Amino acid sequence: MNQEQLEMYNKLKDLQGQVLKLYKEYWHLYSDISTWQFWLICLLFFLGPLVTLFFLLDRENKFLLGFYGLNVHIWFSYIDIWGSGQGLWGYPYKFIPFLPGNLSLDAALIPTLFMLVYQWTLKHKKNYYLYTIILSLFLSFIFKPLLNLHTLFLLHKGTNYLHLLLGYIVVLLMAKVITNVFIKLPDIKRK
Length: 191
What we know:
This protein is mostly helical. The chain has six helices and two strands. Helix 5 (128-149) runs antiparallel to helix 6 (161-184). The chain has helices spanning 3-30, 36-56, 62-85, 103-123, 128-149, 161-184; strands at 89-90, 154-155.
């Protein structure tokens, strides 16, 4: 690494530290445990879905559903972190201030909803794509506008709800494709 590259790297690292410090300060001023938004995000969007999943998860398919849910979590987090990082959308209130994206949506609410729909389509032999697209339409055109109405989620730079729908479609496709690949992998007998 040459000196110019090292200086630029150190400058970026310092700026990241300053931004993180500002996010923590912002969180303490406007989004900490003394606000109703914190408790809504914590209880309704984080703990609520996880408790619901605990009671509703089909235990016979727990690994399949868990693997699928992890895929949804990962892909949704990547898209959410990318969009937030690009300034396309943002979350004025966060459950945990120093994590990128929105932990309650990325790790709990969205994966749980997709897992429950996937579980239902498996159990009732329904079309996965149809029902996850219906869920994506709901999330894009009803849920996110409601969050926006209460300033829990804000769109920027000309981003609209159709863009969000496209993100959800990428998530549902990637999660299903990767899950299907693993389902179809042959077992390897080890000696």
